[in-house]
Design a protein that fits this description.
single chain, 576 residues, alpha+beta, Immunoglobulin-like, 3 domains, four-stranded antiparallel beta sheet
Amino acid sequence: MSRRPPRLKIIRVSRLYRSRILIVVLIGAPILFYFLMFVRFSVDIPFGDDYAVLSFVVNFTNPHVPGKLPLLFSQHNEHRIVTLRLVALVLYSVAHRIDFRSIALLGNLGLLVIAWLIPKFSTAAVGLSSRPASQRRARLWPWLPVVYLLFQPQHHEILKWAMCSFTNVYVILFSFLAIYFLGRSDDRRSFAMAVGLSILAAYTNGNGVFVFLIGLLLLLIKKRFRRLAWWVGIGVFYIGFYFRGYVKNPDHPDALIFLKTSFLKVVEYFFSVLGSFADFGKGAPLIPITVGILVFLGLLLALKKKIHKKNVALTSLLGFLVLSLMANALTRAPLGLYMAFMPRYKFLSILMLILLYQSALELSKRKELIIVSFTLFAVAFGVYSFARNYATVRDNKIVLRVNMREWDARKADLPYPNPEHAETILRLAAKRHIYQPPPDLNIRRPEYPFGAVDGGPDVEVDGRDEMIFSGWALDNSGRPSVIVRSEAAASEPGPSGRRDGRLFLGKAVFKNESILQAERSFYGFPGTERMIWEFRFKAGEFARGLSQLDKTKIFFYARDRIGQETLIGTRTIRSK
């Protein structure tokens, strides 16, 4: 009997493997899974430095805040995040609110452009076959390792964190595009594009300033001295403007002093962050350090084989990443080695691995072997990364939602280094409808009364003293009150008696006065013209009650018209 049907089936399978459809499916799979994870687990709740972006929009849209342009270019930590602020303003002007999922989505979409751009720096794949149809397919095969390494959740902070995703992705995108246009041709249009993109990179994240240095070296190698003069002049102007009024972050140790005293720790950090893609949270830093050393040796080998003469643009990308990793080591090593394994920094490590793959394609004569080897590694790496980090990304959404509910119930602080500042930002943004928490959380805490108490934490009294306290308070009605209670033995409990084990001392008196800066900051809240309060009482009885206790605390509560109270401060009273 004839066996022709099975043979036809084999031929069809063979054609499938030779078709572009299979390549497109293989390339699209990790991208699809990556964005499905984003859609499922991203959440419109600010985290960390997202509050700084929200604070900028709150202040920029306040008509009483002067100096909008200096506010736009103001420093945030070591960076000037102008592009992110502009994006936030555009999104707010379009949607009339800030949606952190939209910012994170925009940041992650930048990965698509990076994935498309990186293979453009290498033309090595075009010559894989002399047949026209195979050439067209060959141009897609080198993309496989790139997409499987980029679109995986090991750098999950970029996947889920709005500010982190935009700044870390777009500084790379703008820098790579600038180098691409600068090395592509010598025409004015490409040069102007390179200049504009370099400026955008510098004002997206701090390491973007390295584009001007890398561009200088690129133009020197290509001997474009006329363009070089313009590039140096423009670079000096913009870098000078960037560092005008630059202030070191007081919370971070001095990097140069740490370099002098702990040089080996900086070197250890550099190799750790360089090989951090090999860290999967196993608590074994020796593995990423070893991988980082191997990656560095690979860079030296590429330079020895004269990659800078064969492909100067690709070499420029490698140089930019090395400078970025060195800057990261200088500024973050004083904070501890654990910083090298933060997911957002693994993104640089992954990019370095991808560029080494592109360099191997440029230098090796066995290009098919390079593509197959890196593809097998990238697929295995991506599958393991999805399996390893899926729970982490899922739990992040749960944690943020639970944290918001617990904050609303006064059981937790907001996830920001200064929780009180974050609470004020959230309250102002909610009042002016700039940001609203997800409606299913039923968050109402931003409407609670709030305020502050002036002065230091400790007060000394004796029988002759009159204690005077002051501060400010606001709520949605414009008519809050301030209640003062004590945990200690005042001889008279007062008219309200005890509440939560604390004794009522009295109510503050509000004055028809305001603090100009606070009035401007809390634009949108009623009652800013009478936000100042004062509380006075004789300390004699209070001091006698302290004779056996030595010290006690008094508590200040802001209360709104329906009886909701917020603790706005405490003071410790000591007897002289």
